[in-house]
Specification:
By secondary structure, the chain is an alpha/beta fold. The structure holds iron/sulfur cluster. Iron/sulfur cluster (SF4) binds next to loops.
Length: about 150
Amino acid sequence: MNCNSKCWYCYETHIKKSRLSAETQGHIVKFVRELLDKKPEIKDFQLNWFGGEPLLYFNHAVLPTMKRIYAITREKRVELSAFFTSNGLLIDENVIDLCKRYGVTGFQITLYGRRERHNRVRFIFQSRGSYDKIKRQHKTFGEKPD
Ligand code: SF4
């Protein structure tokens, strides 16, 4: 529920340090395992991460869960395709490398028009929009061949 952006329309509570607990991570992994155990006909599994900002606690919450789910899908020969809906601000080389390694196939990162309009809607602080940073991230990490 937490996010590092402050879009004016956001309905998330922005509760500080709210993230998937170890217990919830365990429940998610258990759910996936049981589902794939019960339904061996499933050959493709899509996992969608959204928040708040799902990359905010990437190393502590998302990555360990993703690794465990990736291992289950490998074991069961199921094609995993994971996807993030993100504001894009925390994407870096490390996140991209780990995402590639554990079955992430895409990110949805929204822009609200051109710089001025976007920065009025989606800002880090009211005086600091996120347009330039998102564009920079895209230039650095977007649509690169493997
Ligand atoms: S990026 Fe999404 S979660 Fe974050 S403040 Fe904006 S609408 Fe809310």
